[in-house]
Amino acid sequence: MTNPVVQKVNPMLTEERAKASFPVEELTYILDGGKFNTEKRREIEELVTKDPNFEHPPIQFMTREQQYSLAVKKALLVQQRLKELDMLDDPYASYFFRRIAMPREVSPIGLHWVMFVPTLMGQCSDEQRERWLQRALNYEIIGTYAQTEMGHGTFLRGIETTATYDPSSQQFVLHSPTTTSIKWWPGGLGKTCNYAVVVAQLHTQGRCHGVHMFLVQLRDESTHRSLPGVVCGDIGPKMGYHTIDNGFLQLNSVRIPRENMLMRNAEVQPDGTYIRRVSNEKLTYGTMVFVRSLIVSDAARGISEAATIAVRYACVRRQGEPSSPGAPEPRLLDYPVHQYRLLTCVANLLRTMPDVLEGRTERLPETHALSAGLKAVGSNRGAACVEECRRCCGGFGFSEASGLPKIYNDINPACTYEGENTVMLLQTGRHLLKCVERARRGEQLAPSDAYIRSRPTPQPKLAGGPLTADLLLGWLRWRSLSMLLEVSGRFNSFIEQRQAWADAFQAVSRRLTRCAEAHCILYVGQAFLDSAKAAENPKICGVLTSLCRLFLLNEVVSGAGDVQLSRSDLARCQDAIDSLLTELRPNAVALVEAFDLPDRMLCSVIGRYDGQVYEAMLQWARQSPLNATDVHESYELYTRQFLAGRSLAKL
Amino acid sequence: MTNPVVQKVNPMLTEERAKASFPVEELTYILDGGKFNTEKRREIEELVTKDPNFEHPPIQFMTREQQYSLAVKKALLVQQRLKELDMLDDPYASYFFRRIAMPREVSPIGLHWVMFVPTLMGQCSDEQRERWLQRALNYEIIGTYAQTEMGHGTFLRGIETTATYDPSSQQFVLHSPTTTSIKWWPGGLGKTCNYAVVVAQLHTQGRCHGVHMFLVQLRDESTHRSLPGVVCGDIGPKMGYHTIDNGFLQLNSVRIPRENMLMRNAEVQPDGTYIRRVSNEKLTYGTMVFVRSLIVSDAARGISEAATIAVRYACVRRQGEPSSPGAPEPRLLDYPVHQYRLLTCVANLLRTMPDVLEGRTERLPETHALSAGLKAVGSNRGAACVEECRRCCGGFGFSEASGLPKIYNDINPACTYEGENTVMLLQTGRHLLKCVERARRGEQLAPSDAYIRSRPTPQPKLAGGPLTADLLLGWLRWRSLSMLLEVSGRFNSFIEQRQAWADAFQAVSRRLTRCAEAHCILYVGQAFLDSAKAAENPKICGVLTSLCRLFLLNEVVSGAGDVQLSRSDLARCQDAIDSLLTELRPNAVALVEAFDLPDRMLCSVIGRYDGQVYEAMLQWARQSPLNATDVHESYELYTRQFLAGRSLAKL
Ligand SMILES: Cc1cc2nc3c(=O)[nH]c(=O)nc-3n(C[C@H](O)[C@H](O)[C@H](O)COP(=O)(O)OP(=O)(O)OC[C@H]3O[C@@H](n4cnc5c(N)ncnc54)[C@H](O)[C@@H]3O)c2cc1C
Ligand SMILES: Cc1cc2nc3c(=O)[nH]c(=O)nc-3n(C[C@H](O)[C@H](O)[C@H](O)COP(=O)(O)OP(=O)(O)OC[C@H]3O[C@@H](n4cnc5c(N)ncnc54)[C@H](O)[C@@H]3O)c2cc1C
């Protein structure tokens, strides 16, 4: 890959590494969820690194089609190796394996295990499970999850694809009645998969029963040709995700057996009678919360990669007026502005620790509503921090050589899929309005909502004592409640004026999204502090607590516009931020390197472990396809004539 | 291009268009700088649209190399046509022509006219002009501007390339002594250009005289082969800018005649004596301010394109719970949150009116210092607004079909080149510190700095009367001054503690960047209001003033964290924003359509004039190269074996 051989390490990096005030390896264990995991991860990384099957030239120089083809090969190879190594049932091992074998190469079969298999698990009757799940787990079939249509994403109930039951043949007829009903976006749908779970409106006995799921075969199992009535293909190039064939699917009266409706929660009997079972909403919510937590940790992974690259680069990059004649130029990390830009990203990264850890979904909030907002905040921040790290690298950050554009373009769509972020914040906001109402009625609230009351509390003073994390959290709690009460007050006054609930909701929606953000930040800040405090080693606990304070202070300062904060309080917060930057700077490299991301994963010329940036940059650029010849063919074709003043018109 | 044939217009768009409260065409004239310009522009657009030479399949389906080759062809064709049409000397006509012929396709010869020719104009002696300028203007040679090196961008004085004068041969020896001294980034340097202005450290008679400019021939004029000692090539793929060959250049003791030093401001005589002339800094600053103003208007152009796409789409996209059973789903533009997201972008767009207009660089501030900050604010906001518009389009915003990813990736690097934005803000900040000092000494300040005093002024009350634009501007002026005085107070206390100037500056740098932003926003807000008021038609004046208020209110609310604002004032501002959204919504389409961007320029399936989004989307996707066959070759190569349980290892 980009830089397999670690060269003599740049002394500037060695120097920075020596400054760490805490045992980096111990933090690595914490981040991996235990020493055992760290060791396993490293073993697997070594395994993949040694395997020549995973060697190839940098993908940045390939066309999209080449990237796709390579990704298919690698994704299948990964599965095969995992099977050979008997690791298929170990979620950690397979996660580590995929991550290192396909760094930031979105897998064309990813939907199979993220959505297809979990949906079969959750939505099949026991009998259906038996029939399909094993085949899916064995990869005898490859499936995707087809919900979104050209015309409908957010509003699921608007979906137009129909599944009409025909009792005479005991089949469902799956049909796309309009252009807008064509399925659009599902990963792997275009070329890779041969099956899909299709979401469609169920019609039977002349009535529509709303959206249900159906297992539809798309391609012949032996030729892979698309089946009669199935029109599917790739939706074309995107901002990122080049390696995956997000696809479209038009169904022209495609018939599937009655048994292909996923029947855990509802059933259509042979005669067409519709029976709804008491549905287990927890299961459905469970999958959603699981996928959302994957998104949050994927965003964190994006920040960890980008921050590792940008912080290392800031240690070896010198730029600017020397402090005295003859002295070397300052390093980027010497500039307080630069420290601020990078360290706030690092703080944003480590605040996600509790989510990243061990896929601890049990620490993801009990309530489905909170997970919506956390998904939005996590992916928004993820994209923003990666972009900040990218810009921190100057021009190189714009080159694919840095690896940063790819990280940005690959985590960015998470702001849209699995629930667009604004819509997600509104979902959390709606829940918060209900919490105020419940509080007014004296009902009990879930732990993360417990601070919500129906009356304001006095503003905590920031002046006086030291600005501890607890004090700052108290302030953020107060902020969140104040904003919420103001908005719910407005909302109630609309209701009292006899506005419809939906209209009153719309009228406060803009401000409600800010409330939802404030609520999520509070949750996240508390979780950050909890996990900082949980660190046994006092040095690690110390540095994490400082980072947590930086995170909280930054929220207080940048969110001060939402509520009133006195100038002197603001000034104290600003001073505290400045001190924290100085305090944390020596640990900047150690903090990102605790994530222990190998060069093979970063794929970054400027983020290399050895810090030997410039030679590698030249080597990398020489591989650009445009450099295959000294004189490019466009010269013979066009430029020669032009320079000679001859007309190009007939070209 | 994407959608040449306008179909029957979607009635939802027709309806929205009918809601305009002002004559759209008149605003178009204003934006174009007069009816005459509008007509000329349309004529030229028609000319290009009819010319089959500019026809080609959508570039999103091409490889980077194909895109580059096509861009060379088109860029040269544009020049040729302009010459045939005798429009070369008309900056407007050529601007319009390029824009429509190469929509968002960064020109491989762009640096020739943006930097190479202007540098020759500004830095050549009269005699040198005669020799080279005419050849450059006639495109007998194609040049670029090579300043940045791998090791140095921001800190120009650190540049390492040397130009050592050898009196015996009366030549300069141009040399790259290290890897870091290799020129990196110049546009068109890789493959296209045959000449470059090279920035290098001048050595003569054993002394170094700092950076100077030299005209260096890179490639043979008849074969285009790189000359002996010249190693140049493409720097490889980037986040955007696919159509241009940003290049590298290593000079191995390349000799050029003494006369190739650009000698307007300094000279090396035949015997090697160095003579510095009184330099005309205005000229150098003039070029800088010119390029920065281009960047600001390019960012505005990006917003205008993105906003046109997103606003039109928001009119035709229905999504969500109908207000009553059987009613159609709401349009995106019906959601207040969505109105807010889009209309703040539109406000940010129209606030740049004064800069966009007629390339009115005379309205760009007299001071070089302000232009640095305006460059930063303009490009930061440009990127942020385009990204917001992109996300407003849901999943489609991530597809290249929308045109939005390209707009983002193409305007984004403007945050980095021509002075990285943080560095630019610090430049303006440094100037502001000096202004406080001058104010203290009772000296006169430039008009845009005139509000700066050495003592605070009382906070203007927002309560009481209506929140007029003037009142809001007064508040922002007060905010800017308050922040600045606080920071300069800190700065002075460091100086009093005998810290070095540079250290004191670093200590306040983080906060100073916020001061610089606040100062620029104030300037921009005032300019926005001035141009709104200047509109003769009272309806246009009305709608622009409302937009200006939205812009200002949003700044007050989001910048409130920097200073103290009472909760009741905040609440009033929020209410005012809500009312403005309702007031402005009917004009949303009219406002973006006043920019009159033809489909050919937008290259967007979802931003089409006719609003027929979905059919076009399907058509577009079908052209994806992955769809050339039903079964992709990766199936035969890998998937078949895999599904059959056979090993892939030997592939
Ligand atoms: C890379 C990628 C991969 C994907 N993979 C899959 C997949 O495997 N399977 C699948 O089924 N789908 C997939 N999707 C589709 C994805 O789930 C949808 O894009 C997403 O649900 C948003 O729906 P939409 O695109 O229709 O946007 P819309 O719902 O049309 O929303 C557009 C805009 O309107 C706003 N908006 C919508 N409703 C409201 C409201 N009520 N209030 C305020 N604002 C509103 C949103 O904020 C958004 O900005 C994928 C998408 C992407 C980008
Ligand atoms: C698309 C593109 C086109 C370009 N075209 C050309 C061209 O035609 N010709 C040409 O000569 N160059 C060109 N450039 C180069 C461009 O001018 C440089 O990238 C730019 O000047 C920044 O320099 P750098 O990349 O070396 O970043 P650096 O100067 O190394 O800066 C890196 C980071 O450090 C921070 N930093 C640096 N100094 C300070 C400081 N004093 N205080 C605080 N922070 C600091 C910056 O904010 C930045 O985030 C181009 C670049 C791009 C991306």
TrEMBL record, chains A, B:
Domain Acyl-CoA oxidase C-terminal: 472-643
Protein's UniProt name: Acyl-coenzyme A oxidase
Positions that bind FAD: 148, 187
GO biological process, alphabetically ordered: fatty acid beta-oxidation using acyl-CoA oxidase; lipid homeostasis
Stated family: Belongs to the acyl-CoA oxidase family.
Keyword Lipid metabolism among UniProt keywords: yes
Keyword annotations from UniProtKB, A to Z: FAD, Fatty acid metabolism, Flavoprotein, Lipid metabolism, Oxidoreductase, Peroxisome
Recorded superkingdom: Eukaryota
Pathway info: Lipid metabolism; peroxisomal fatty acid beta-oxidation
PANTHER family, per the entry: ELECTRON TRANSPORT OXIDOREDUCTASE, PEROXISOMAL ACYL-COENZYME A OXIDASE 1
Principal location: other
Any Pfam family: ACOX_C_alpha1
Organism: Macrostomum lignano
